[in-house]
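Cast an eye over this sequence plus tokens and explain the fold to me:
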Amino acid sequence: MLKLILIIGTGSFIGGVSRFITARYIQSAVLSGFPYGTFVVNILGCFLIGLFFGISERTSFMSTELRIFLTVGFCGGFTTFSSFTYENVSMLKDGNFFYVAMYTGLSVFLGLMATYLGNITTKIF
């Protein structure tokens, strides 16, 4: 278990640093109020997690530890949006359309509400 935690932690560290550098570089290259840096990181993270899971499902090239390092660690540190979209793709493959709609809708709505409530809570104190 400790080995897996270290594998995930290392991947998360590299992914988080990569997210910061990539998003900052992209955002500084574009003069806009739109968060292009975060947007590109999220889409890139989704592509990468799909690629990594596809490789692990179709070949024996990737060990369990490497898959966990790349998906849970790196992609998880790079963007949690990639995990969210992969879970939705998995449910779509299984035909669970109701769960996809519920998970997506509730995640976006409740995520926005929780962020807003967390923000206004700081104004109370």
Q: What stands out?
A: Residues 2-79 form one domain. The first helix runs from residue 2 to 29.
